[in-house]
């Protein structure tokens, strides 16, 4: 991004913001469910990278406060963003499947951290929900009801698999020969084009030499 801000590149703030969102922020969003268990030191390293990117996008001087840059660029801190993304993934999963995950996270929220000192994935999720202040919203999560016409298939029923098979226009050998013929024709055309170009250049050079001698 620093290279894109050079005068010969002339990338505006909109292009820099788009590049950051697609090339950098998207990676963090995709791995949010894994990197949220990282230590605070590791998260601070990512925070510093985002702060440098925000300064480049906004063209802000070094003394600009981080909160002002985050508000101007509409980018919260990575720590907050990662927790929000995980919370969104959790609620989608719980609404789709009535699993034991909701019960495990609820139990982790009421555990005493001085007794349960082991840092598990569920504990990290529960702590993130507490920091967001979304305990009541999480407790109200329920599985979405199915459609009225949906019927649970019996366990002995085989699952249907639909496949579509298209016939080839010719046999594989004929298709290979046709592809090889097209490749040969293209190669021959390229050689002829290069030959004509070289002949034209040679003729032009001879004419120029002849004019020089005549002069």
List the helices and strands and how they pair.
Blueprint: H1 13-30, H2 32-35, H3 40-58, H4 66-73, H5 78-96, H6 101-109, H7 121-132, H8 135-139, H9 172-214
Helix pairs in contact: 1-3, 3-4, 5-7, 6-7
Region (Disordered): 169-215
Biased composition (Basic and acidic residues): 170-194
Biased composition (Low complexity): 195-205
Q: Which value, in Å, is the CA radius of gyration?
A: 32 Å
> Structural class from helices and strands?
mainly alpha
The strand count comes to 0
Q: What is the approximate shape?
A: flat
Mean pLDDT: 77
Q: What proportion of the residues form beta strands (DSSP E)? A: under 5%
Percent of residues in helices comes to 55-70%
- Low-pLDDT runs: none
The oligomeric state of the chains shown is single chain
Distance between the termini: 57 Å
What string gives the helices and strands in order?
A: HHHHHHHHH
Largest sheet: none
Tally of helical runs: 9
Short description:
The protein is an all-alpha fold and 215 residues long. The chain has helices at residues 13-30, 32-35, 40-58, 66-73, 78-96, 101-109, 121-132, 135-139, 172-214.
Structural summary, described in words:
With 215 residues, the protein is mainly alpha-helical. Helices cover 64% and strands 0% of the residues. The model has no long low-confidence stretch (mean pLDDT 77). It is flat, with a radius of gyration of 32 Å. Among the domains are: 1-75, no CATH class; 83-144, no CATH class.
């Amino acid at each position: 991004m620093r290279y894109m801000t050079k005068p010969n590149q002339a990338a505006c703030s909109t292009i820099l913001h788009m590049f950051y969102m697609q090339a950098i922020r998207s990676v963090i969003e995709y791995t949010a469910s894994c990197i949220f268990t990282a230590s605070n030191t590791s998260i601070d390293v990512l925070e510093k990278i985002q702060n440098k990117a925000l300064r480049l996008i906004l063209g802000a001087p070094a003394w600009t406060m981080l909160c002002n840059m985050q508000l101007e660029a509409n980018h919260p801190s990575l720590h907050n963003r990662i927790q929000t993304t995980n919370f969104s993934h959790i609620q989608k999963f719980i609404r789709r499947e009535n699993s034991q995950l909701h019960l495990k996270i609820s139990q982790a929220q009421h555990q005493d951290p001085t007794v349960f000192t082991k840092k598990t994935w569920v504990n990290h999720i529960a702590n993130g929900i507490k920091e967001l202040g979304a305990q009541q919203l999480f407790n109200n999560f329920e599985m979405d009801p199915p459609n009225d016409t949906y019927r649970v298939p019996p366990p002995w029923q085989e699952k249907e698999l639909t496949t579509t098979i298209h016939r080839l226009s010719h046999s594989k050998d004929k298709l290979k020969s046709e592809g090889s013929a097209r490749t040969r024709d293209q190669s021959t055309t390229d050689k002829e084009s290069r030959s004509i170009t070289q002949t034209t250049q040679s003729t032009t050079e001879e004419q120029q030499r002849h004019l020089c001698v005549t002069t």
